[in-house]
Amino acid sequence: MDRMTRRRLTRQIPGPAPQQAATRFRGLFSNDPYECMTLICLCPFFQGIIQENECILSTGYPLGMAWRKEYRLMTEDERNRYHNALNALKRNGVYDWLSRIHLEVSVGSGAHSGPGFLPWHREFLKRFEIALRLIDPYLAIPYFDSVMDSYLPDPRDSIVFSDLFVGQTDAFGNVVTGPFAYWPTLEGRPTISRHKTLKNESTSCPFRALGQEGQLLTEAQVNNIVAQNTIENTLAFTAPQVGCPYRNNYGAIEYVHSSVHLWIGGNMKPPSTSANDPIFFVHHSFVDYLFELWRQMRQPREYRETVSKLAFRNIDFQK
């Protein structure tokens, strides 16, 4: 489907939901699109028609799987549509609703500082992606591969932090340009914030004061992530309590991902405010990509069908 065809598409308001399904069918049928785990489950919310196990939209095209690209590899049309969809979600309150969900699990929950980090954020990204696709069914969350920027002489010069992508800040760290300029935050600030300029900083880009702490991901860190051969070192106990038999693994995905949050700073620094900034989602999309890369290498289908099933031998799935 070419660019002009996509522009002519009429966005559909989600249709009526199916009836509540039994617990064992959760994700296959639902009255809430965000609980869906299959395209067939999502189909009614897009006013699609199921034909031969496909969901055909009113445009005549099927509702396909979301195909995530590196942010900078999106076409100009794809990037503009992504930014437009984000702004639509901001206007209708869905973006802030999702951001608040992340705020509410920022402390004292299983979403951070432990084995639940990766699976929780995978589900969170799925729900965010469904929200995007209810605006534009041909979108997917791009990912920000910050390893690419770690090779730059000055990573702060990355095009990602330009008006074409996530925008730039003023001298006080307020995002005032780009597609997310002057986005109010959940906390009542009039703009998203990132690292502000240091008074003694002398640079050709005086307002790009990123990188005051933390670091972007590196090739060595990615290689270490995919080299882990146990699930304990991947899901990881990143805040083990006294008596926990597992030690800190400072190469775990959760640890190294946090360095990027620190490098960007501002709202991205604390988990309670990080989802205010749309760069949160493209960063976590890359984190999820690394998790999937590890999973495909270390837990292929034959592993899941043999070794993994032993852990479930005493579970009655009919309950």
UniProtKB/TrEMBL annotation:
Q: What is this protein called?
A: Tyrosinase copper-binding domain-containing protein
Report the coiled-coil segments: none
- Residue stretches making up the Tyrosinase copper-binding domain: 112-129, 277-288
**Keyword check for Mitochondrion:** no
**Record's keyword terms, sorted:** Metal-binding
| Chain segments annotated as transmembrane | none
Instruction: Output one GO MF annotation.
Output: metal ion binding
